[in-house]
Amino acid sequence: MSNKVHKNKQNITKISAHSEPEHTTDKPVVAAPSHKTTTPPAKTKTKTKVPKSVTNEKPLREVFILVRPFVALGRYLRDSWREIRQVRWPNRKATWKMTLAVLIYCAIFFAFILLLDTFFTFIFNLLLGINK
């Protein structure tokens, strides 16, 4: 008895957005016969209209010059609110983990800066001959 596993060949179809499917098997692929012999209708280009809700913003030049900063601020706040609503906020457990990580990092960095300050103070006191 052999312990080898025999794999069956399967049809694997690679599909991309810009090409026809490519078959990776050794067998040639033959298209199924079509019962209808009519030609497909010609493609016509139709211009799609953008909904008014997307294009309802006026350019800033149409607004009176003294009001422009307020209009721009309003748009900024509105767009910021839209972006904030799309954020995936962490849950409570993840928030505490990240908070503790930041606090531990700050404590380590504080200790490092404190050691450097003490070291440089000691070195300068030796160089300048200042004794406490």
Summarize the structure.
By secondary structure, the protein is mainly alpha-helical. The protein contains two helices and two strands; from the N terminus they run ββαα.
Q: Main sheet: which strands, in order across?
A: 1-2
Instruction: Tell the overall outline.
Output: elongated
**Biggest sheet overview:** 2 strands, antiparallel
Total helix count? Answer: 2
Keywords:
132 residues; mainly alpha; 2 helices; 42% helix; elongated
Overview of this structure, please?
It contains 2 helices and 2 strands; from the N terminus they run E-E-H-H. The chain starts with 12 loop residues before the first strand and ends with a helix. With 132 residues, it is mainly α. The protein is elongated. The protein has a two-stranded antiparallel ribbon. A hairpin with a 7-residue loop joins strand 1 and strand 2 (22-23). The longest helix has 37 residues, at 92-128.
SSE map:
Elements: E1 13-14, E2 22-23, H1 68-86, H2 92-128
Antiparallel strand pairs: 1-2
